[in-house]
Design a protein that fits this description.
The chain is of the alpha/beta class. The protein has 2 domains: 3-66, Orthogonal Bundle (Helicase, Ruva Protein, domain 3), CATH 1.10.8.10; 88-275, Vaccinia Virus protein VP39 (Rossmann fold), CATH 3.40.50.150. 40% of the residues lie in helices and 20% in strands. It has a 7-stranded mixed β-sheet with strand order 5-4-3-6-7-9-8, sandwiched between helices. Strands 1-2 form a two-stranded antiparallel ribbon. Helix 2 runs antiparallel to helix 4 (51-65) and helix 10 (217-225) packs parallel to helix 11. It is elongated.
Length: 276
């Protein structure tokens, strides 16, 4: 079979199994199986695949059809135009989170002086790394309760050459992070435990997805703890699901003087920004 024939067959198979990006998934997985860039596939449509290449590719598409995220299958994911190692120990970086990073970078650039930033629940390290990459005056203290996640984050920090400006620590919320901060960023678990989720979302670590109190529990704890850890003029940026926005923004209103909400790429209320 040729590249184009395999792509057509795989796209149809993945679409039947519920993928809403079947063609893209098929291309990304084939590029991984062949060890080439996705762009290179368009230059090799008539290339015939060997039996070994077909076997590798069919294994990947079978796993994708069962709901495994593409990022876990290929081992990496792009976020904010940066490449991150991704394993089943961490949440797959989501484009919805980019609005949080963009706002954090904007704040850092407007400050015109070095900032101390906390990244709570760092996972793969994508927020900490993207903020530090695009805002060179920032130093980040990033924490996570999962040591396995921090191992992935550590490799990503090293990959992007930021080990001198990103410090990784293990513990709950702000507890392990040292000192006070000019900005606290967080993409904490915010899904209700009884939520009905697609298979590829449920394949991600439950500890990075679910929180008590209908999904709001961890965000509410962070909101309560943050004012005492912010420097004068410091800000909190917390990603939330629209379903918990009312409860979490009300909590922020009780402890901060100012609260605003930023929308994600799909137009959904996604990030609470709070300051006093």
């Amino acid at each position: 079979m040729t590249v184009i024939e395999v792509l057509k067959a795989a796209s149809g198979h993945l679409q039947k199994h519920g993928s809403d990006s079947a063609r893209l998934d098929a291309e990304v997985l084939l590029a991984c199986a062949l060890g080439v860039r996705r762009l290179d596939l368009y230059l090799q449509f008539d290339r015939s695949l060997s039996d070994e290449e077909l076997s590798d590719y069919r294994n990947l598409t079978r796993r994708r059809a069962r709901g495994e995220p593409v990022a876990y299958l290929v081992g990496h994911k792009e976020f904010m135009a940066l490449d991150f190692e991704v394993t089943p120990a961490v949440l797959v970086p989501n484009p919805d989170t980019e609005v949080l990073v963009q706002r954090a970078v904007e704040i850092a650039r407007q400050a015109n002086h070095p900032l101390r930033v906390a990244d709570v629940g760092t996972g793969s390290g994508n927020i900490a790394i993207a903020v530090a990459h695009y805002a060179p005056d920032v130093e980040v203290w990033a924490g996570d309760i999962s040591r396995q996640a921090l191992e992935v984050a550590s490799r990503n920090v090293a990959k992007h050459g930021l080990a001198e400006r990103i410090h990784l620590m293990c513990g709950d919320l702000l507890d392990p992070l040292i000192g006070s901060f000019d900005m606290v960023c967080a993409n904490l678990p915010y899904v209700a435990p009884d939520a009905d989720l697609p298979a590829e979302v449920k394949a991600q670590p439950a500890s990075a997805l679910f929180a008590e109190q209908g999904g709001a529990g961890l965000v509410l704890r962070l909101i309560a703890a943050t004012p005492g850890r912010l420097n004068p003029g410091g800000r909190l940026l917390a990603e939330v699901d629209p379903s918990i926005l009312s409860e979490t923004s009300a909590a922020a209103d009780r402890v901060f003087s100012n609260v605003t909400v930023h929308r994600d790429l799909g137009g959904r209320d996604r990030v609470i920004e709070a300051w006093s």
